[in-house]
Amino acid sequence: MKKLAAVFLLVILAAVWTGGCSIAKKDTLTVGMELAYPPFETKDENGEPYGVSVELALELGKFLGRPVKIENINWTGLIPALETGRVDVVISSMTVTEERKKQVDFSDPYATAYLALLVNRETPAESVEDLNREGVVIAVKMGTTGHIYAENNLQKADLTVLSSENACVTEVIQGKADAFIYDQLTIYRQSKLHPEETKALLIPFQEGEKWAAAVKKGNSELLQQINEFIRHYREEGGFERLTEKYLAEEKEVFDSLGFRWFFE
Q: Distance from first CA to last CA of the chain, Å, rounded?
């Protein structure tokens, strides 16, 4: 009888332990991002996730009272990771587009970005219109809004579609591509890193693109919580702190050029 009681107790304890693990796993907020996009999503010198989006994700976790796990996923795999439940939310400099709205639900926007051009110094281009001609080669990162813009508006040029930002920049530096289309902040940074080979054309040539967090279709509870967090974080000065920590130089330059700031 005692043996049966002991076995019964072990079964109960095992069930409690298993249930506890399930709860802990559920309580963890798993955030998908591609850690290849400094200063937004990248790694520090120790290989740990670092950057604007990483800090935003951690602050979201604090707001929700949930520990955060960051999953480093290739850009084209981020939305599938939401759809399969591998991650709860994507916070990875993702632009809201009508096509993506068919696949995921977006939070309220937290930033506004504009496309810009990183141009090889030997390329005689002063605007995006100058690139829309035969013989011009434009590097784009696969699946980005720069890629979409080029396909829709620069059809006379040849596109080199690559999987990473660095690969696109390298094409421009080496003169294999005339230009790279990406967001203003990144183009500015890359032009500063490679001033002899490249120049930045920062004047916006399309409507501002809204960046937002993405959740699985129908996950209205988490979506509402994220929207509450964004409102709270903005009201208590969180985006100003992110600017000061990660983007102070860019803010100063953009203010001097009269550009709308990213987090406004």
A: 70
